[in-house]
């Protein structure tokens, strides 16, 4: 206040009143938490990681000091209640913060902050620190104007700062006395635990409408196409209706929705869209959101060179070509990816690949033009997780040989281009095809698998919804022992348990998506591993109940349940078996518990 008075050129009653309120409402002595605070924590003092949703650095520490940690939170929140009358900042219009994609509401920010501080309640004295932030901003503005009057201010608009002191002080009084944050209120008033952005909701509705209007109506035609082509050499070729559907989806802007940098959607936004597309086996490809192309596009977008992006990524994004991913091998235990024997060896301006891969999904598709192959440098002495590399291999390169398609419980998955065994015999590709650098294969794989597992899990949950629909319809149609099947208590319990299982899996998957958005793939490792185990198990339970209610018909190709079961069952092995993920979850949980125990012991020692 002394600094403000030294700079003030006129009397502003709101500043005096705000100063008196702050003096009379200091946090009590029991709240003596002290830490290093930034002092000017706001979004334009942050550098974001170019590849993950996380902060890489915080700049501009010259105002840092010792103080209460809520000061930084409050300073960030201050811009959510910015006075509308202040024209230089008014273009941000942060009063309606929920309308801006990607910016959380004040309640959401406080909830996130509280969660990471391991407390369930909102900070009880946050209003004090909000009011203090406005008092500080008003005082700084007054000082800038004072320097203007002395002729030593470098800011071109320093004259304007005199007009914002009073509005800032008035808002400070308002938040001090009138704004309250309810504890336990959800971050949105729609009842959603995880809230989609406005754009995400709009796109989801468009996808639902498109599915209803076009996709579901084409399902019978596509199933009949593959039934006719079953013994034809053209079985791997897509039906013409697919191209027509893809053109319509692209024209409506429902294209490449999985890639945040292209679609502008968060992982949480896309997770709910992926669930919708999972209700029909060919729907993801209609929107160019199908595996393995999605994972390969993410790899090339995040790690590819400009040349690689132009040659391979752009045609994938346009939907003009397809790709496959070669990692699993037939001769080793692939649950431990360091076992792989496929060799990638430098030879002048080229790399030579030798090895066997299998379960390379999509390789039989005539439009599959390249594979991303993961292999090992046998001569390296690096650590076991830095011996592997990923490289782009055009499918028409001499030495690339498609050996055979592999069936899943008797199904060859013709629509998705099959799951092939591929041999690489002295395959030579230019050195420019290497992705990111030698020995960085596992680094790339981790970046690829996080969002990809979200997509797989949510699509499987969509399949679970379809299976539950089949279950309910059949139980309402068939009569056994004198009453409809759903009147039998055991069937009613199946329906209830299936709904519970789907809701639990969905919430856990959305939590993982939300954490990726907030903190990046690495911070969400435990949640990603948990959904990889939980979602397929839950959906398999639903499909199994549906098969049981259909009896012998459930095993046949007259209904999609058997094929759905075969596909979902593969997810308990694909991208790592359940057992590997369970071990990872246990390890991360033990580390978390050890960290909490250590913090508790340190606190007791301090006390």
Structure description:
Helices cover 49% and strands 12% of the residues. With 607 residues, it is α+β, with helices and mostly antiparallel strands. A hairpin with a 2-residue loop joins β6 and β7. α3 (70-77) packs across α6 (126-150) and α8 runs parallel beside α11 (267-277). It is globular and about 90 Å long.
Tally the helices: what do you get?
A: 19
What structural category characterises the helix and strand content? Answer: alpha+beta
Instruction: Catalogue the unreliable spans.
Output: 88-99, 180-191
Largest sheet: 4 strands, mixed
Brief characterization of the structure:
With 607 residues, the protein is α+β, with helices and mostly antiparallel strands. It is 49% helix and 12% strand. Helix 11 packs across helix 15 and helix 15 packs parallel to helix 17.
Features:
four-stranded mixed sheet, 607 residues, alpha+beta, 14 strands, four-stranded antiparallel sheet, 19 helices, single chain
């Amino acid at each position: 206040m002394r600094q403000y008075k030294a700079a003030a050129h006129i009397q502003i009653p709101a500043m005096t009143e705000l100063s008196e309120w702050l003096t009379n409402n200091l946090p009590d002595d029991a709240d003596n938490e002290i830490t290093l605070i930034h002092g000017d924590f706001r979004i334009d003092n942050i550098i974001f990681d170019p590849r993950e949703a996380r902060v890489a650095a915080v700049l501009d520490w010259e105002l840092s000091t010792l103080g209460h940690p809520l000061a930084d939170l409050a300073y960030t929140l201050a811009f959510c209640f910015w006075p509308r009358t202040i024209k230089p900042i008014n273009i941000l219009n942060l009063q309606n913060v929920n309308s801006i994609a990607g910016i959380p509401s004040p309640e959401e920010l406080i909830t996130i902050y509280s969660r990471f501080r391991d407390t369930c309640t909102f900070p009880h004295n946050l209003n004090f620190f909000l009011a203090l932030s406005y008092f500080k901003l008003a005082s700084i503005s007054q000082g800038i104007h004072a320097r203007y009057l002395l002729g030593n201010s470098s800011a071109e608009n320093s004259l304007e700062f005199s007009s914002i002191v009073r509005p800032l002080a008035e808002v400070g009084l308002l938040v001090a006395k009138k704004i309250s944050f309810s504890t336990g209120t959800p971050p949105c008033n729609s009842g959603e635990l995880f809230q989609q952005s406005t754009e995400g909701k709009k796109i989801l509705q468009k996808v639902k409408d498109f599915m209803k209007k076009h996709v579901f109506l084409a399902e019978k035609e596509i199933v009949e196409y593959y039934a006719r082509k079953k013994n034809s050499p053209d079985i791997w070729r897509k039906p013409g209706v697919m191209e027509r559907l893809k053109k319509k989806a692209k024209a409506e802007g429902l294209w490449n929705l999985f890639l945040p940098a292209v679609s502008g959607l968060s992982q949480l936004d896309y997770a709910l869209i992926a669930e919708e597309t999972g209700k029909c086996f060919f729907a993801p490809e209609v929107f160019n959101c199908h595996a393995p192309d999605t994972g390969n596009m993410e790899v090339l977008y995040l790690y590819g060179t400009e040349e690689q992006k132009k040659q391979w990524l752009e045609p994938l994004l346009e939907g003009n070509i397809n790709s496959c991913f070669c990692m699993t091998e037939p001769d080793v235990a692939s649950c431990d990816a360091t076992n792989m024997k496929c060799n990638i060896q430098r030879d002048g301006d080229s790399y030579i690949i030798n090895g066997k891969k299998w379960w390379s999904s999509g390789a039989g598709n005539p439009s599959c033009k390249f594979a991303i192959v993961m292999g090992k440098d046998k001569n390296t002495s690096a650590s076991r997780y830095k011996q592997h590399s990923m490289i782009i291999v055009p499918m028409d390169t001499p030495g690339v040989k498609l050996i055979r398609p592999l069936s899943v419980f008797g199904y060859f998955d013709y629509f998705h281009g099959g799951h092939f065994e591929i041999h690489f015999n002295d395959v030579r590709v230019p050195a420019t095809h290497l992705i990111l650098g030698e020995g960085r294969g596992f680094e790339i794989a981790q970046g690829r698998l996080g969002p990809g597992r979200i997509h797989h899990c949510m699509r499987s949950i969509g399949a679970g919804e379809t299976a539950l629909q089949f279950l309910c319809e059949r139980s309402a149609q068939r009569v056994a022992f004198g009453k409809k099947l759903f009147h039998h208590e055991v069937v009613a319990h199946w329906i209830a348990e299936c709904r519970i299982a789907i809701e639990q899996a969905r919430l856990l998957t959305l939590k993982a998506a939300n954490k990726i958005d907030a903190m990046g793939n690495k911070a969400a490792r435990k949640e990603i591993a948990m959904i990889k185990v939980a979602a397929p198990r839950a959906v398999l339970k639903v499909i199994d109940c549906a098969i049981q209610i259909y009896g012998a018909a459930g095993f046949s190709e007259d209904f999609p349940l058997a094929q759905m079961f075969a596909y979902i069952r593969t997810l308990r092995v694909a991208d790592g078996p359940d057992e590997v993920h369970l071990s990872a979850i246990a390890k991360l949980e033990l580390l978390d518990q050890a960290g909490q125990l250590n913090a508790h012991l340190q606190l007791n020692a301090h006390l």
